[in-house]
Amino acid sequence: MALTNEDLQAINSLLEPIRNEIKSIELTLENETNRNIQIIAEGHLDLVHKLDDALKVENEKEMLLLRVNHLEDLLAMSQLLDVKLDARLKPMENDIKSIKDEQTRINLIIENDIQHDINILVENYVPAAKRYQDATAQIQAIQADIEIMKKIISDHSEKLKKIS
């Protein structure tokens, strides 16, 4: 099922609020969570520098755990957004299917009914137009004859008036 430009624009306009929500979440993460994580990490690093080299491995482990926790949070947010997006896309998919079904129905009506009626009109119009075209010359000849007859009758009427 290929999507048209209009479909993509409609999807894009529906995705815009989601994008804004993602940006808001990212800003929250950057401004609060990441800052807090950074503060904790900096404090932790100061303590680690004072410890033996043996504790260096433990520090790296904790940093990785912080990253994993951060990534898990991002994954949870991503899954939540996927659910919201799916909920919004499903009605749109149904609407698109409905529009396509209606378009198919209209195309069938055009093909089966309207095109047939147009063909019948064309079949009848062409011979009628030919008859009218042929009759036009006859009508013009008749009109010319009537004009001549009017003049002759008028002349005869004057002659009859003079005689009487």
What does this structure look like?
Helix content is 94%, strand content 0%. Helix 1 (5-50) runs antiparallel to helix 2 (56-163). It is built from 2 helices and no strands. It is rod-shaped, with a radius of gyration of 44 Å. The mean pLDDT is 85. With 164 residues, it is mainly alpha-helical. The chain has helices spanning 5-50, 56-163.
Could you name the key traits of this structure?
mainly alpha
Shape: rod-shaped
Low-confidence stretches: none
- Can you count the helices? 2
SSE pattern: HH
| Proportion of beta-strand residues | under 5%
Chain-averaged pLDDT: 85
Give the tally of β-strands.
0
Radius of gyration: 44 Å
**Secondary-structure class:** mainly alpha
Profile the largest sheet.
none
Overall helicity = over 70%
> End-to-end distance, in Å?
95 Å
